Amino acid sequence: MDMTSRANFDNIALQLVRVLHTVITEQSVSRAALRLQSSQPAVSAQLRRLRTLTGDVLLVRSGSGMTPTRVALDLLAPAGRLLQEAEVLFGAKSRSVRGSGFDPATSGLRFRIAASDYLDPLFLPELTARLLRAAPGVQLDLQPLSAEYDYRRSLAAGEVDLVIGNWLRPPEELHLGRLLSDEVVCLVAKNHPMARGRGWSVERYLACQHVAPMPLSAGQPGVIDEHLASLGLARTIAVRSAHFGQLPEMVARSLLVLTTGRLFCSRYLTELPVLVLRCPVAFPRMAYYQLWHELGHASAPMRWLREQVREVARTLVSGTTAPSV
Predict the structure, then answer these.
(1) Which domains does the chain possess?
(2) What is the pTM of this model?
(3) Is the pLDDT of residue 115 over 50?
């Protein structure tokens, strides 16, 4: 490294790295300024400096918006790693990473979690309550999983700390912790023709009108339909919805069939006129995981967070029973 490059390197402040990461993530100077609690002229000036330092324009006009260049996308993950490590290293409130020095009671860290709502409607409320009891100073950002949300990229870029959901085959590049497995059952209205289970066969199951969540990957089937396809079977999906928590209400007001985990279904048996039926198709148990990137693997705060998630999952499973018809 020559003296000019050394001088440029030494003059890069952490705030400049934060601006770089935020501008690329938001793909907008104005949105980045709002997120950084700064002004648009100030962020524009920092972007000009970043362009000089990197030798790249970083963002280019695309229609009415801005698009990151290839160089910008390559810089996103290193910038995310640097910010995450700096938060652990210099966060005055976190007291983190020196041996077992992380103290949840005095921490002011921000935990960012992306989670599906398929697991249990009580899971995120219970996790939130547990975290805030043990660490009242933390901030908690909860991001829903959807087909539009690239959780693998977000984990690699350090934009999210933990992802919670169910997969037949979780991504191999990520660390994973198995939270629980759950029996696949069917939720139907009490007035559904199959509500008593009489004549409830594979053929009748497939012939019903089904309601299903949007898959987590655009253009790909969900775990239920992926397994049906492996058996050479297909069902008629009358309704797909991104609002999984509303599906039981839809079932209660129609003849739709919802196929999902027993843990989720059991929460609605006393609230709605619905029943749980055993599924006539043999499904493997649904496996729920928490996934994380190597970035936070050894971090004391992240290890603590994963322990809290495991404990909430264990508690919810041990306290739930739901009979099937």
Answers:
(1) 3-74 (1.10.10.10), 91-181+287-318 (3.40.190.10), 184-284 (3.40.190.10)
(2) 0.66
(3) yes
